[in-house]
Amino acid sequence: MTSNDRNLWRERWLGCINELTSLDLQKKSWLDRTHTNPHWSFVEFMCSYFDDLAIDENYKYQLDKDWVTKKEYEIIEDWHIALDKYNSPKKDDYDNEAILNDPKWLEILQIGVATRNNLAKILNDTERQFLTEEIDYLKYI
């Protein structure tokens, strides 16, 4: 793997964290019934983070390859574990409205916002932008 692979992975990783910690984005995009892009849903946000980023064994590969630093992982660890253990209401991952009203999901979001803020403090300006920029999902529909 090249440094370019690392940079592309990190850009996507930070973008996924941004999406998964933005209640405003989730409300706007997950509940918008006028779009047809499947990415803008709970299921796809979770798949993008866990599957597309290949985050198996709690970041073992990424830590071994220095794609994520130990400090970065320590910052996101609690949120990551809570996210991994989350079960949607009635185990219906397609009921975006129920998820957005689920106190357990809202708690994970709160942890996520604190995580995002702490992570942003140690990133360079470019990476901080990927993590904190306001995403306009309508540009991708």
Can you offer a commentary on this structure?
With 141 residues, the protein is mainly α. It has one domain. The chain has helices spanning 3-20, 23-30, 42-52, 60-64, 70-85, 96-100, 103-120, 125-132. Helix 1 runs antiparallel to helix 3, helix 1 packs parallel to helix 8 and helix 7 packs antiparallel against helix 8.
**Main sheet properties:** none
Distance between the termini: 32 Å
Q: Got a strand count? A: 0
Q: Residue-averaged pLDDT, rounded?
A: 95
The coarse silhouette is: globular
Strand content: under 5%
Into which percent range does the helicity of residues fall?
A: 55-70%
Number of domains: 1
C-alpha Rg (nearest Å) = 15 Å
Query: Helix-strand pattern, N to C?
Result: HHHHHHHH
Report the uncertain regions: none
Structural class: mainly alpha
Our count of helices gives 8
Please write out the topology.
Layout: H1 3-20, H2 23-30, H3 42-52, H4 60-64, H5 70-85, H6 96-100, H7 103-120, H8 125-132
Overview features:
mainly alpha, 141 residues
Brief sketch in words of this structure:
This protein has helices at 3-20, 23-30, 42-52, 60-64, 70-85, 96-100, 103-120, 125-132. The protein is mostly helical and 141 residues long.
